[in-house]
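Narrative of activities, Objective 1.

The group set out to show that a structural description can be obtained from nothing but a protein's sequence at a throughput compatible with the screening campaign. Below is one input-output pair from the validation batch, recorded exactly as produced.
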Amino acid sequence: LGDVYKRQIIASFGGAFAAFLLATFLTRPIRTLMRDLRQVSLGDLQHQSRVSSGDELGNLARTFNQMTRNLHTAQAAKLSQKALEHELSLATNIQSGLLPSELPEIPGLDLAAFYCSAKEVGGDYYDFLQVDEDTVGMVVADVSGKGVPGSLVMTMTRSMLHMAARDNNSPQQAIIEVNSCLAPDMSPGMFVTMAYLVLATKTREIRLVRAGHNAPLLYSARHGQVIDLHPKGIAIGLDREGDLFSSQLETQKFTLQPGDVLVLYTDGIVEGKDPHGNDFGDDRLHQLIARGKDLSAQDLLNTILQDLQAHQKTAEQSDDITLLVLKSC
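Output recorded for this entry:
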């Protein structure tokens, strides 16, 4: 009886010890994973579990490690995106500061202007330049590239034009100087189209050059129709040497008469898409100008933009939009 009793006691202790070892074997990796989870929950997304068994707990640990790696990558991407958004915000503010803060006051002339980029920063540009006491320059331009690269090129273009236009009544010579400065260093495939005019404020004589840009539109009160103004010229940056650019550039001269309306714009207007991909179109813009010839410059500008918005409906704006309206009173 005594031997039987002893064997039962030994068996009980052995079973208990085996159960203890099994429990320890099972619970240790679980406790380890719980500590790992706690570490990650405190923000340490680079922490990795060391549980490496070949069972379900090992699979769970490997899944846990992959999850933390993904979270770490996502967090890094989020921080990078926030940094990019901050930089774009700064670029937007800088670019906005380069646009005219107010329109010039010119006796007998009514002015209105609008600019809206398709992205945070854009490649369109408009400006008014005081060439001399009796002459004002007006420009609308568009860079082939968009986003930050386009914005940088446009900023350089603005600076060069301001220097070239100072005390220079020849828009042709000013644009030639801009091209000679920019073209040698511009990236292949990038160029700038521009319509630039100088206006003699006393005589209202205009001299216009067009470097590959959309033809400005003139409603002539004397002729009762909208006229395309298209002096010859290729875009800035296409000719690195400059000889072809200079030889192709023409100047068109005309004098504004009472009731005339001059419209400068970028292709974001006429190439504005509706949900089916159809363009707003040149004819539609011509018709709006002809119908709105008696409106103020601001009212005509608003009419064009409202009609463009009605055309686009829910379609996303795909290009920068710039519009300048000048009316002779």
